[in-house]
Design brief:
Helix content: over 70%
Number of domains: 1
Structural class: mainly alpha
Order of helices and strands: HHHHH
Distance between the termini: 30 Å
Mean pLDDT: 96
Strand content: under 5%
Length: 115
């Protein structure tokens, strides 16, 4: 199948999954749904890359699905709103959790691929 079609299908599925997980309530001001999709998405993408998935799987699940699933734009928006509300502590924690968590998630994916 054409790569663009696979990316489009995967992106639609990933976006729908992200939409559902975004309904998870924030805890102490931290948007848990956004954190969950960014960390798990980073892990899953690293795993797909590490196991040298076939091109169709890479396009469908990796680039499309996980591209639609993870969300830097929502993270940025939520973090900016915290800054506007002068909630700098929560803003800092949110940045730390998303960035460090996503990098740790990617590391976890690479480790899982090596098992």
């Amino acid at each position: 199948m054409e790569p663009a079609i696979l990316v489009g299908i995967g992106g639609g599925i990933g976006s729908l999954l992200r939409f559902e997980l975004s309904k998870i309530q924030a805890h102490r001001g931290i948007p848990l749904g956004t954190l969950l999709v960014n960390v798990t998405g980073s892990c899953a993408f690293a795993l797909i890359i590490s196991v040298h998935a076939p091109p169709d799987i890479l396009y469908l699940a990796g680039i499309g699905g996980l591209g639609g699933f993870t969300t830097f734009s929502t993270f940025s928006y939520e973090t900016f709103r915290m800054m506007e509300n002068q909630d700098y502590y929560t803003m800092g924690i949110n940045i730390l959790l998303n960035m460090a968590g996503s990098v740790a998630g990617a590391g976890c994916g690479f480790l899982l691929a090596g098992l």
